[in-house]
Structures are given as C-alpha cells and as structure tokens.
Batch of 2 targets.
Target 1
Amino acid sequence: MSQGVKPRRRYDSRRRDEQAAQTRRDIAAVAGKLFRERGYAGTPMPRIAAEAGVVVETIYRAFGSKASLFRAVIDAAVAGGAARADVPVEERPAIRAVIDAPDPRRQVELYAATQPGIHRRSGPLLRALFGAAATDPELKALWEELEAGRLAGQGRFVGMLAEHGHLRPDVSVEHARDVVWTLCSLAVHDLLVVARGWTEGRYQDWLATVMARELLAPPQGG
C-alpha cells in the first residue's frame, strides 16, 4: 500500500519569500504613485490597498506603518527602483562606478552625476514629507532619520577620498562631509533648478566643479 502514496512535497520557503518581496515591491510602486499625486495625508491606506489589490492588513504586515511604507517608497526612489533598493549601496552601478574610478576628480564628477536623478525621483516625496513633518512627530523623526542617513552616506564618500590622500590638506573629513551634505541637499537643488531655472546639466556641472574645488587637493606638480 505504501507504494501508492506520493511523498509530500517539501514546502518551498524561498518561493514564499520571493512572492512576499514582490508583493512589497508592488505595494511600494502603487504607494509611490499615490503619494506623488495626492501627498502623504491625502493617501489613505485603504486606497493604497485597493489599487495594489491587497487588503490593508497585508500592507501593515509588510511595512508595519504608513510612515515605514513612505520610507520604503523614498528608498526606492533614491535607488532608482524598488528592486534596486534591496541592493547594497556599494553594489549599485552608479556608486560602483564612483568607487572604481581611478582619478579623484572623475570620482567627484560621477558622484555629482548621481544627484539630478535622485532629486528628480525623490524630490516630490521629500517635499511632501518635509511639509507634513511640521505637524506629525512620526514624520519629523523620519525626516531626521533620512537626513542622518544621507550625512552618513556622504561621509563614506568623503572618507574614501581621504583614505587615498585626495582631500585638501586644510580640510578635515568632518568639514568635507558637511560641505557635500549641504551642496547635495534637495534645498540647494531646488534653489537652483526649481527657483532659478537651471537645467539639470548646469546644476550637475556646477556641483562637480564646486565639490572638486572645496574637497580635492591640487594635482601634484600643479
């Protein structure tokens, strides 16, 4: 009799994890669209769930809170897509190109080249977050967390330059980090591109020029 019994198939946890990750990406994509169109306060969780084809409880299980979902949407925008957000920063192609460039001025140019796209994708979300943070303590904490993360990330870029002896001798790592954090902020981007009408190309070139001047030691023999 045992010959006619089929063995029970082992549960494929990897497939379940892949499906859960895809569900998270789908929810984040829908939420990003709605947050851009309607703002944070104007996008209720039931609306996100309805458009994503899930129940509200699925969103809470996947993200924990609306603010955490908003954070995931911003992370995806900065990375250039929800799938890229799961990739370590150092392994993303644009950042890998910065790390691998042999010349410090080229590294600065490539780093500056990442900024217009980041601001284009994440700017609408961050502007909405900044406005809502004034009256929502949870969103205020999220804004501060994102800015702290940006400071740390740009500190790693500056640390790489310092490690290879490329910083100006009169500039500390902390000072250089603060300069990059300021120059690459959404506020500076919006002053030049939004308020003054600069093209993204002009902004990128200006950013590379100013960062190189403020951070890099002069070429040997120069």
Target 2
Amino acid sequence: MNNKLRDFQRFIAGAVRGNKPAPPADEFEPEIRPYGVPAGQNKLELFECATCGRPPTRLEKSNLAAFLFEDVVSAKEYQISGMCQACQNKTFHREVWS
C-alpha cells in the first residue's frame, strides 16, 4: 500500500476520533469472540483499527497479534474495512458486548 495513502488514512482516523487516544486492545475472550483475524490482513493493510485506532490483541501462548470478532461476518468485514468489532457494532447499530 502507498505510504501517503496510509498516512492519509491515519489522519482521517485521528480526525474521526477527535485526536483522542485510541482505546485499549480487547481482552482475549474465546467464548465471546472466537473468530480472530491476524492484524494487517485487511484491504488497507493497517495494523490498527481503521476507525478508532485500537491496537490488535496479543493472543495468549503466542506472539500473534489479531483482532477478535463475534462471528464470521464480522471477521470478513474487518478484512474489507479494517474496523474492529466495537466500531462495527457502532457503525451497523448492533448491540455492543459488555
């Protein structure tokens, strides 16, 4: 991916957040979010959420950084848009897991 495009995307994400710091990574909860996608495996090739800047979760017993999702559809959406589960829930008006 072009570095200028990546920098522009990060600028837009910061503007959307109001330049607030990114939320912390999700806790690893395999019962609630059993579907994981390695960070960076999205069309934008970003290693943080394209909307809020949330970092990926470091999975236990491995050095893998991944985003965790509730279902296959959410995992596929990450691969298209780069949005974490919380941002998808807000964007598509789904009930947020507590």
